[in-house]
Each structure stands twice: as C-alpha cells, then as structure tokens.
Amino acid sequence: YFVNPSQMNEQYVTIVGDDVNHIAKVMRFRSGDEIICCNGQGRDVRGVIEEIQPNAVRVRILREEGPNRELPVQVTIAQGLVKGDKMEVVIQKGTELGAFSFCAFTSMRTVVKLDEKKERRRLERWQKIAKEAAEQSHRSHVPIIENVLTWRELLASASRFHYALFAYEKEETVTLHRVLAEAAPGSKILIVIGPEGGFDEKEVAEAEAAGFLCVSLGRRILRAETAPLYALSCVSYQFEQ
Ligand code: SAM
Q1: 84: how many CB neighbours lie within 10 A of its CB?
Q2: Which of 64, 93, 167, 187 could form a cystine bridge with 162, CB 3.0-4.6 A?
Q3: ipTM above 0.95, yes or no
Q4: With contact defined as beta carbons under 8 Å apart, do 204 and 168 qualify?
Q5: Is any ligand 1 atom within 6 A of the Cβ of residue 27?
Q6: Ligand 1 site-directed mutation target among 217, 220, 226, most atoms within 8 Å of CB
Q7: What range(s) does the Ribosomal RNA small subunit methyltransferase E methyltransferase domain occupy (predicted)?
C-alpha cells in the first residue's frame, strides 16, 4: 500500500482513506497479518497490522523491504495531449516501464480541449492510474502527474533536466539510443512526444532554440501513444542489462 511520507515514521505506518476499506473488506486482513507499505519516495517496509479502525489501520514496521525496481535514471514523459483514453494508456504502461513523472502539454496541433474543471478531473484520474500501475509493478515510486503545460511552459522546462530530448520523426542522425549510451546513471531525462498530428516545423525550431535535442525513435512512424513506450523501453534496455 502506498502512503504519504508523513504517514510513515521509523516504527509505524498509519494507513487512511480508501485503502482502509481495501484492507478490511476486500483483502480481509486481520491484526497480526503482514503487509508491505511504500512511501512513494523509495522506502518500502514490511509491517504487521496492529489495529484496524473504521478510518485508519495501524501497522508496526518489522523491516525494510524489497529490491529496488526503479530505473537508474529519472525519465519524465512530456506528452502532447492525445484523444480519448490514449493518455491513460501512456500513463499506465509508462508507469509499468519505469517513468518517473508525466506531464501533458498543448501545442499547435493539439485537438483535445480541457477547461479547468475537466483538467482537474483528468489529473486526478491520471494520478490514480499511475498509483495503481505502480502498485501492480511493485514499484516504490509513484510517478508524479504534473499539471498540463502550455507550449511556452514546456519550452522553459528544458533547463531542469540533464537531457531535454524532443522526439522528431524527421531527425535522421541523432537516435535516442545514441544519447542514452552517453547518459550517466542518475541523469534526469525529459522526453517530449508530439500529439497525433505531430509538431509544426516552427515548433521544432523553437524547441531547438530552447535547448532541446531532436532525437529519432527509429525508422518507422510510431503512434503518439506508442512513442513514449518505445522510448521508455529503450531506457530499460540501456540501463538494466
Ligand atoms: N498520426 C499518428 C498518430 O495518430 O498517432 C502518428 C503521430 S506521430 C507524428 C506523434 C509523435 O510521436 C511525433 O510528434 C513524435 O514526437 C513521435 N514519433 C513518432 N514516431 C517517431 C519516430 N520514428 N522518431 C521520433 N519521434 C517519433
């Protein structure tokens, strides 16, 4: 179970919210049963349930637990907003493949329109999907879902990363493989993927001027939701051999 870091101290974990019902009614755990809790920041512990109350479960920590399942680099996927449930596919599968965080952005060819209310609901839903996918993959980190960025905000974010990469199907010389081969463990890598209609040439020039490096994801044109999964698979291949 994932908890906020503030719910886990040296000796105890306090589980609140929907997970209480899951523990008591779905899993039918009882006092004395052992469970694993993660604080979402890389700390996994095995603990024994001491008390199940209607609104909280108290767990005494027995020991630190688990292999590290995180990629040795932090990959942020910036995905041009895509239609329907494609964004959910990117977040679910991208979480399984080890992404550190996700942000959607709008650009010239974005078709999807989100008002403030819709955006808030989508962000909540995406965060829930990331949490569930992280649990299913036994990850100790739940990917962060950032707010939807404007094109300008996306361009300004390049400086926060060691590598700011811009997936562009017309790039002929620089491949993602080549860049990853040079990246050191611990690097923060941003990979920008376009929406269904891709990028306008003006946007490509703006991205390069903002410090992004155009990279190819191979010779075939991938669908907008396939491209980030390919990129994350390349990262796993490079760093987990
Ligand atoms: N029209 C299809 C769709 O509806 O999904 C293809 C869209 S493709 C243009 C969307 C984005 O995927 C591009 O903007 C680019 O970021 C990325 N992409 C796809 N294939 C790529 C490749 N071979 N190399 C680099 N980037 C690629």
Answers
A1: 9
A2: 187
A3: yes
A4: yes
A5: no
A6: 217
A7: 70-235
